[in-house]
Amino acid sequence: MDKSITLPPDEIFRNLENAKRFAIDIGGSLTKLAYYSTVQHKVAKVRSFDHTAKVPSDKLYEISVQEEITARLHFIKFENAYIETCLDFIKDHLVNTETKVIKATGGGAHKFKDLIEKKLGLKVDKEDEMTCLIKGCNFVLKNIPHEAFVYAKHADSEFRFQNTHPDIFPYLLVNIGSGVSIVKVESEDKFERIGGSSIGGGTFWGLGALLTKTKRFDELLQLASKGQHTSVDMLVKDIYGGSYGSLGLTGDLIASSFGKSATADKDFSKEDMAKSLLHMISNDIGQLACLYAKLHNLSRVYFGGFFIRGHPVTMHTITYSINFFTKGEVQALFLRHEGYLGAIGAFLKGAEEDNPNQYSWGENYAGSSGLMSVSPDINPMQRARSGTFDMLEMDRLERQLVNLPLLQDASSYIPDTVDLTEDALAREYWLSCFEEALDGVVKRAVASQPDIPEAAERAEKFRQKYRHKLQTLRHQPFAYGSLTVRSLLDTREHCLNEFNFPDPYSKIKQRENDVALKYYQKAVKSLEELSWEERQFALVRVELTAGPFCEQLERPWLVDAYDQWIERLKGPPHKCALFFVDNSGMDIILGVMPFVRELLCRGTEVVLASNSGPALNDVTNVLWDFFDNMQNFIDLSRLDKVLAMVVRERQTDLVIIEGMGRAIHTNYYAMLTCESLKMAVIKNSWLADRLGGKLFSVVFKYEDPTRKPSKDTVALTPS
Fold first, then answer.
1. I want to staple 486 with a disulfide (CB 3.0 to 4.6 A). Which of 256, 465, 633, 649 is the partner?
2. Where are its TM segments located (predicted)?
């Protein structure tokens, strides 16, 4: 056993002092450890005031910081060579735990049973490997957006992430370990092994070792990535001099794996033999998977197991095989966290009394390694690191999350307008913006906690961690799924929370709230003095700008459906409007509230939806050209379940989405089953130019699914 490593507890085995409910998955070369912990940190909450009290407060609400305990799941992956050192480390740092049993799965669970029990003093309770694998797969598919991806080797973005379908079942899981198991999964607890093969990862490893004298699996794959299989394989054109047209076979198809080795009087390179072997086994598995998918009428086929392990060359050969045999009808899907499935499933088996599936969970980017490409050409430093330790952390969310019931097709809904993973120019711009803004965020974080001496030290740690995340995303933008402005903000928020800065801009927001409240009554009174037509335009104006930039609102706008909206307002009132808003600042007090008041006067019920805690991206006066009023981003596929119930019960027939973050960066193309109004002022010069407008261009997009799209509504397609 290798004991030469030093393990930093704050980076790998975090929160061990609160750890309980351990699980472990031990494979042929990798160990995956799982445990549950509780994390105490500061949370910013919006507190309302009772205005029926005898002594009413002059504040509508305020932002208060509270201590909160959050449940967190930790998953750590490392090579088996480090298992004894890791167990010693856990034993030395484990403070309080009521755990008496550790759930175990994987082929190595029996081999290391005595060592685990001796080191940790826990009884090893072995769980069925396939059951754990399915449970883990269901869990990540339900809880992690962009978990599944298609691998496209020669595309601008090698990872193309898929939207998680609201109903993940049924699907086919092809688990490629030593052999191959093909499992049909129909529900949370119903699955069946419908087939398999003895020709799998072990075959590749074993035959590869005999052919190349290379004993390490990863080294064998590296050889294959450099090889040319056509030197060893016999192609159709080698037999017929070209394609075989009557059978539809192109000349470059493999007619016989290793076919040339029987007749050629020469030695073949290790690289070429490894590549030929990889193609042979991948094609066999791909064809088998396709046959079972067609037999059971399944379109979603996920591949996992140690044979995959995120290796580009493996994913490419399987993808090619699936495309060939199904003529593109079925896609080969891979999982960002497929290496953790067994450990996650084993953990869930041990935590069934807590019913973790009743909650929604979210990936904590601050404590997760992210998907690392193992291609040596991409980032050798990251590849070396991911070969030792890899981490995934998931936090339990306050509420169970579901789709907005009003989405036309939840399975095709994409929240973000621009995918930075695929758009290199946009990616460079936004990454640079976040890097340039970092000093300002650190300054605000310290200023938000003036009475706490160690705030500056924590803020500096935040700076280092977030800068490292941004550097990682420069090299590997696919690390946490599709890279978007929203995910960059989420990562920043996770890092701030990690160092107990729940809302660095709370002081600014509170001042802005106080100023806005002083002008509210005056604003309402001035609106009441206008004619109906004038008032409707004034309401839109203050909603879009909350006052400061009225001179920029001359029509026509970049996207202008105002006339259609006014015609609709002359008709019967809506039953209920769902309004996505900020929970703080000038916009909601002077912009949203007058607009809502008008809807209420029309007889429309209004539901206001906002974050329970202040967002870190709706701030004024911070890098005006970049962050100003970049309001909350909204993912309509991950909303509070209670809100979804209210939407149904109130028969909501109008959705209003305002602000650049909610209506342009996200949800601009969201298609709803009811009327929708999306409005924003583009307060970023780069984005305005990209969309064919100018700084402070207005987007006013009214859509009615029962009518044809307005000719005034243009597509925001970057030029």
1. 633
2. none
Token digits for 561? 């459906």
Residue 557: CB atoms within 10 A of its CB come to 20
Q: How far apart are CA 606 and CA 635, in angstroms?
A: 20
Average pLDDT, the chain: 87
Q: What is the pLDDT of residue 651?
A: 97
Helix H, strand E, coil C: the string for 14-79 is CCHHHCEEEEEEECCCEEEEEEEEEEEEEEEEEEECCCCCCCCCCCCEEEEEEEEEEEEEEEEEEE
Mean pLDDT of 74-78: 93
How would you write 613-625 as a 3-class SS string? Answer: CCCCCCCCCCHHH
Tokens of residue 194, six digits: 């419908």
Q: Judge whether 436 and 470 are in contact, CB under 8 Å.
A: no
Do 9-145+340-398 and 150-232+268-335 have matching folds? yes
For 445-499, what is each residue's pLDDT tens digit? 999 899 999 999 999 999 999 999 999 999 999 999 999 999 999 999 999 999 9
- Report how far residue 230's alpha carbon sits from residue 569's, in angstroms, rounded to the nearest whole number: 68
Q: Where are the domains of the chain?
A: 9-145+340-398, 150-232+268-335, 525-703
Pairing of strands 559-560, 698-703: parallel
Pick the CATH number of 150-232+268-335 from 3.30.870.10, 3.50.50.60, 3.40.50.150, 3.30.420.40: 3.30.420.40
Would you identify the CATH topology of the domain 525-703? Rossmann fold (3.40.50)
Q: How far apart are CA 123 and CA 138, in angstroms?
A: 27
Which pLDDT tens digit goes with each residue over 274-298?
999 999 999 999 999 999 999 999 9
Per the listing, tokens 């004619």 go with 531
Tokens 């310290």 appear where? 446
The alpha carbon of 214 is separated from its chain's Cα centroid by a whole number of angstroms, namely 37
Sorted by sequence, the CB contacts under 8 Å of residue 328 that are 6+ apart come out as none
> Strands, E, within 198-318: which ranges?
234-235, 254-256, 300-304
CATH number of 9-145+340-398: 3.30.420.40
Pairing of strands 159-161, 148-151: antiparallel
Q: How confident is the model at residue 52 (pLDDT cuts 50, 70, 90)?
A: low
Nearest-angstrom CA–CA distance, 201 and 180: 8
